[in-house]
Amino acid sequence: xxxxxxxxxxxxxxxxxxxxxxxxxxxxxxxxxxxxxxxxxxxxxxxxxxxxxxxxxxxxxxxxxxxxxxxxxxxxxxxxxxxxxxxxxxxxxxxxxxxxxxxxxxxxxxxxxxxxxxxxxxxxxxxxxxxxxxxxxxxxxxxxxxxxxxxxxxxxxxxxxxxxxxxxxxxxxxxxxxxxxxxxxxxxxxxxxxxxxxxxxxxxxxxxxxxxxxxxxxxxxxxxxxxxxxxxxxxxxxxxxxxxxxxxxxxxxxxxxxxxxxxxxxxxxxxxxxxxxxxxxxxxxxxxxxxxxxxxxxxxxxxxxxxxxxxxxxxxxxxxxxxxxxxxxxxxxxxxxxxxxxxxxxxxxxxxxxxxxxxxxxxxxxxxxxxxxxxxxxxxxxxxxxxxxxxxxxxxxxxxxxxxxxxxxxxxxxxxxxxxxxxxxxxxxxxxxxxxxxxxxxxxxxxxxxxxxxxxxxxxxxxxxxxxxxxxxxxxxxxxxxxxxx
Amino acid sequence: xxxxxxxxxxxxxxxxxxxxxxxxxxxxxxxxxxxxxxxxxxxxxxxxxxxxxxxxxxxxxxxxxxxxxxxxxxxxxxxxxxxxxxxxxxxxxxxxxxxxxxxxxxxxxxxxxxxxxxxxxxxxxxxxxxxxxxxxxxxxxxxxxxxxxxxxxxxxxxxxxxxxxxxxxxxxxxxxxxxxxxxxxxxxxxxxxxxxxxxxxxxxxxxxxxxxxxxxxxxxxxxxxxxxxxxxxx
Lengths: 486, 234
Ligand code: SF4
What we know:
Chain A is an alpha/beta fold and about 475 residues long. Chain A has 24 helices and 10 strands.
């Protein structure tokens, strides 16, 4: 399906539109309140950006340091060059653990490398334990947001899914279920508990990894992250190589902006620091801890035109504030990472030819950059992505020719004037048969609004006439002996 | 865009400036800053047009004033990106950018006037264009000017800082999305009860005005210069 077809689908889904509108208003209000209440928030954001920049500048060093620290604490570090490598590494560990059931907490990297499919192909049963992800898995759906994966669904959708897949609890009508959030949650909890207890392997993402100490930081609001990383015998943590931060003090700064930007919370309900597997004197925790460092195109981004996108801490604020995301939702992007940051990261990681088109899904309004806690210049990089996409695909002939002609005309004032005249005639001609409708690639304009037409005399023509009249008046005045300044 | 589609904006701009005693020149060779091509990713085509812009304005002196926040933002930020690898052009671009102001900025920050003696009997609301607000970081100057318009009641616009959906070629490349966005804008304008919605960007103006017209709404979208020059009335 093309981008335009997916957009049409989204725009004509009133259900989705309601969910998106609700998300837009709610998430922005919460974010603004939380950020507004943070003292010196502008400075904290500057600091957060500086920390991320430093991490990327010396990424090689910090990753080696991280590996040494994790290893010293009894963990095992694996390096995965691409999605396939990462999938194989995880599958190998799971096989060695003789697990059948795998419990997962939320991880966008696992979505990126399509881990579930890979593990299922090897015969593992994989269960998502983040509530949103669990709902999606039951529905055979995919995330539409990097923080709130099921944001495109309403409560009624969830109730229907639970009724179908988990069965209606005794004595409850479907209507009751649709309004009873605690009941819905308890249904999920009941189903997931057996998964936590029975799983041989727990897989999690990593929000930040601290090079200094080897601590893996996970933030969540559901507590499933803690269960996944502590109950199963083996814990596998997946992270993109860019998610490293130098020190614990740096981590503290980033956490301050992450939760506020993501959900408007001062801090998430659970902030876990995983520092190695269970130690001899400890009563619980996994026996093995594996950290899989996933490159999958990131190293190649460093030093390129889209490197700044690697600063991202995946808070999702740019999605929430984006007026285009608000209209079309996450699925319309057709990629794992949607929204403004997704329109950069997806082509950068997944291929410019195939995904560069996503950069068109922006009016370049700059709301994303304004809200981004690490101040990523998303609009400028969207423009760069458009250039890279043109270079990769050659561009659409009609636009190539149009822009080329326009560029010529704009360099020669006489051509520009001629162009204006032709456009004015053309517009007048088109308007003779009724309301003006623009032709060809410009038709989209008049599908949604009127076009005012081209003025019969341009400003420059009027200006020139005025100058001539003024000059004539000055000559006449000079003749009559008067002098005045214009 | 003001030149071709709404020359009245240019005339009003000149009138406002001359009323302040400013001597206005209009270099006849000027065309465009190159932003449409730049935003679409056509860098070399944009660079050629931007170079023409530099040739024209390098030969002038004094402030360069434009009735478009978007064009001013292009000169300030886009040129730096386009000429990043060309130190000679970059220096020229920086010199011109240092002289380039959007109209309200020039009036309020350079001339230090907010009351230009304009009158408008009716309700006004203001749509800050994205490039004015976030590109130039200019949120206050237009409002300061509008607050001094005699007879005008300045009313807030819900979702004022949300994009109107223009976005240059975005409006024809993803017209459905752009259409939804501008519909939100016109609904908010309608709800504000204002007779006119004022903006500092001819692009947004053409977009919003076109949609208001399509929906046969009573409100109109006009340029700040037109209100300040007294060339629009309720
Ligand atoms: S780009 Fe910025 S706003 Fe968007 S998800 Fe990343 S950190 Fe958050």
